[in-house]
Design a protein that fits this description.
Helix content is 38%, strand content 19%. By secondary structure, the protein is of the alpha/beta class. Helix 4 runs parallel beside helix 6. The radius of gyration is 23 Å and the shape is globular.
């Protein structure tokens, strides 16, 4: 389950984003060689909240939390996997989309944050395909409607049964007078290049499109009768695996459960802490630098596993931000701080840059990219404080550039003998962590005069004071 026994003020259920395969209620993950199968078999009685049943493989946030966790594990724990097949465990239905009764009973804020997380999960599928060499194939064995078709759209290849019943549809406009909420129209037109007139017609009919017309209109990639569907799927899996750039040979790591303590006003992890001041409507997120330099080479990274500082901090920061979105709706501002040895942070950035060709380092870098993008679109005022003792270097400096407002102390505080704060740039600030529009945060900041970006890049490795 994605929730636990904690209850928020007003009786609402605490939503937890940590999960693992042994706790999945809605997805089955099977790995056989270089192919993984993600089977969507939603337990209709295991909704995140009471008052609805998840019939016809419809989903709520809990279903998507499991999906996000499974995709993350495929990237980190299964370097051998090159192709992921997504399919339904139910007859004659792939996925009916977001559960209507769940949406009807949810607050506006929950619906917005649910859609945001769901779309981030679909973006994660595409990111895995583009940057990790794990291609996704969807098998549509029945109805793929609304969010169900949006899930299929996020994959690389859509196969549909040609049985007169299977269909794809975006019926939200026709039935609810709302636009699809997780990128459906955008992916139909911009990704699959469906003609605009076809897209207009498609999203205004309830019954959807099936058979050959779905292929001609580019809504799916191919169809096959049920008797030949598995054979066609085996062909496509072999084809996509042969084209994969995935080269994750060797040892893998386990994404072990995060160690944390949660009380009424704080969340404590190994390197990240969150202090919540509900009266002031502020949550302060502090990040601690590593106490030692990076390990010697990739073997040292593998030995550390999930406790490797950049990976552990990324996981802890991700796990801290998500509950603040959903569980702390009264919080208006997130304040980021850091403390510790800046030289060690720089050294880890150097490790990530020097070993970027290794599959695991590549995954860690792209995970940081996704975490920072999640922070970018979190609907709170973001503030970063650069104070004596801060370690906003390279990767952590991205939090300075992501903030709506960043404040840096000039000199020292009275009675504080620590050195004045500085910021240091590394190679990680100039490419690995683009925002959603494709520009780095520094490129976005210095659009008016590109020479400013050149001057910033020339200062890599220098301690920059206020």
């Amino acid at each position: 389950m994605a929730g636990d026994d904690r209850v928020l003020a007003g009786g609402a259920k605490y939503i937890d984003f940590q999960t693992e395969p042994s706790r999945y209620r809605h997805w089955k993950l099977d790995v056989a060689g270089d192919v993984a199968t993600l089977t969507m078999d939603v337990d209709e009685n295991a909704g995140l909240f009471e008052g609805y049943q998840l019939k016809l493989n419809s989903y709520d946030l809990g279903v998507d939390i499991e999906l996000a966790g499974a995709v993350q594990r495929l990237r980190f724990e299964h370097p051998e996997v090159k192709v992921v097949v997504m399919r339904s465990g139910k007859n004659r239905v792939f996925c009916a989309g977001a559960n209507i009764r769940m949406l009807a009973g949810s607050t506006h804020a929950h619906k917005v944050n649910c859609c945001k997380f769901t779309n981030e999960t679909r973006n994660g599928l595409e990111d895995s395909s583009e940057n990790s060499g794990q291609s996704f194939i969807t098998v549509v064995n029945g109805t793929a409607a609304g969010g169900g078709y949006e899930l299929a759209l996020a994959t690389d290849h859509i196969m549909m049964a040609d049985d007169g019943a299977a269909a794809v549809a975006l019926p939200e406009v026709r039935l609810l007078a709302v636009l699809p909420g997780t990128g459906g129209l955008t992916r139909v037109v911009d990704k699959r290049k469906v003609r605009r007139d076809h897209a207009d017609f498609f999203c205004t009919i309830e019954e959807g499109i099936k058979g050959k017309r779905a292929v001609v209109w580019r809504l799916v990639d191919e169809i096959a009768p049920n008797s030949k569907l598995e054979g066609k799927l085996a062909e496509r899996v072999k084809e996509f695996a042969a084209k994969s750039k995935r080269n994750g040979a060797g040892p893998r790591i386990a994404l072990t459960p995060l160690k944390r303590t949660i009380d009424d006003s704080a969340i404590r992890y190994g390197f990240v802490s969150v202090d919540i001041d509900r009266a002031a409507r502020i949550a302060t997120i502090s990040i601690k630098a590593p106490e030692a330099t990076p390990p010697e080479g990739i073997d040292g990274l593998i030995a550390q596993g999930a406790s490797f500082w950049p990976l552990q901090v990324a996981r802890e920061l991700d796990d801290a931000v998500l509950p603040l979105r959903l569980n702390e709706l009264g919080i208006a501002m997130l304040v980021f701080k850091s403390h510790g040895d800046a030289a060690n942070v720089a050294a880890y950035d150097g490790f990530l840059e020097a070993n970027k060709g290794h599959w695991l380092v590549n995954e860690i870098r792209h995970y940081w990219k996704r975490v920072l993008k999640r922070i970018d679109v979190t609907s709170r005022t973001l503030v970063t404080l650069v104070e004596p003792g801060s370690c906003f270097v390279g990767t952590l400096a991205e939090l300075v550039f992501a903030a709506d407002r960043s404040y840096m102390l000039i000199g020292q505080k009275q009675g504080d003998n620590r050195a004045p704060p500085t910021i240091e740039l590394t190679a990680m600030n100039f490419g690995p962590y683009p925002m959603s529009h494709g520009l780095t945060r520094l490129q976005s900041r210095f659009q008016a005069d590109p020479s400013d970006l050149e001057r910033a890049q020339a200062s890599i490795g220098k301690a920059l004071d206020a």
